[in-house]
């Protein structure tokens, strides 16, 4: 006699009395379409019993990676990225030494006032 697992030959391991209806495959669902700025439509299904506030207003469109909204006429706009700045561009934007000193002094005075070590008039 062969000994092995407890499964009866021909049965699925882990199969039980629960059917597909109990797992949600045939649960009532609602279909919601999302559109991105390029007009791509993405369809998502949600449980019909889900409250409206739990259904997301926007999602990321899988075909374009852009945000997609539920309003077909006014989808979310394409995100505008700042152009790449070189190190030299950042150096040109730096403050002068006098501006930096005055900003540092102002910040230190605010900290001293908050800690109560100096009155705001001094």
Automatic annotation (TrEMBL):
Pfam families to which the protein is assigned, alphabetical: RbpA
Gene Ontology BP annotations: positive regulation of DNA-templated transcription
Chain segments carrying region Disordered: 1-21
The entry's keywords: Transcription, Transcription regulation
Gene Ontology molecular functions: bacterial-type RNA polymerase core enzyme binding
Family: Belongs to the RNA polymerase-binding protein RbpA family.
Subunit structure: Forms a complex with the RNAP catalytic core and with free principal sigma factors.
General function of this protein: Binds to RNA polymerase (RNAP), stimulating transcription from principal, but not alternative sigma factor promoters.
Name of this protein: RNA polymerase-binding protein RbpA
Species whose genome carries this gene: Cryobacterium lyxosi
Gene that encodes it: rbpA
């Amino acid at each position: 006699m062969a000994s092995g697992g407890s499964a009866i030959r021909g049965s699925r391991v882990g199969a039980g009395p629960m059917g597909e209806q109990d797992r949600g495959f045939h649960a009532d669902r609602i279909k919601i379409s999302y559109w991105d700025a390029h007009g791509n439509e993405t369809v998502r299904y949600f449980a019909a019993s889900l409250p409206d506030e739990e259904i997301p207003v926007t999602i990321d469109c899988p075909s374009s990676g852009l945000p997609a909204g539920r309003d077909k006429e006014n989808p979310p706009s394409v995100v505008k990225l700042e152009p790449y700045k070189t190190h030299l561009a950042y150096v040109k934007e730096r403050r002068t030494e006098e501006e930096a000193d005055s900003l540092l002094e102002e910040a230190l005075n605010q900290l001293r006032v908050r800690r109560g070590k100096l009155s705001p008039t001094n």
